[in-house]
Design a protein that fits this description.
This protein is globular. The chain contains 2 helices and 6 strands. The chain has about 90 residues and is α+β, with helices and mostly antiparallel strands. The chain starts with 11 loop residues before the first helix and ends with a strand. Helix content is about 30%, strand content about 25%.
Length: about 90
């Protein structure tokens, strides 16, 4: 695993370059990079329960669920995050 020194404040473009070169995941909030902690068993159970509840609610819609492996850019918050569960509706 490579270690990359992270500046205290970075641009979105610099964050995306660091993220592509680094083997771990991190999020960025208004220029500050934050490492993502590994999940616990309790966290996994909670995420599974949330996914099951949302899946039932989305059964008759065109929307679906995505997992934390997909990052999302929240423009209004100036952040890039990996949500545990995300509802995705067309158009994509």
């Amino acid at each position: 695993m490579s270690t990359i020194e992270k500046p205290s404040r970075v641009t979105l473009a610099a964050y995306l370059e660091l993220e592509a070169a680094n083997s771990g995941q991190s999020e960025i909030y208004d220029g500050e990079i934050v490492s993502i902690a590994r999940g616990s068993y309790a966290h996994g159970v909670s995420v599974s329960n949330i996914r099951a509840a949302l899946d039932g609610k989305l059964k008759d819609s065109n929307c679906g669920l995505s997992s934390s492996r997909m990052k999302i850019h929240l423009e209004t918050s100036n952040a890039v995050v990996y949500p545990d569960v995300m509802v995705v509706c067309p158009p994509f």
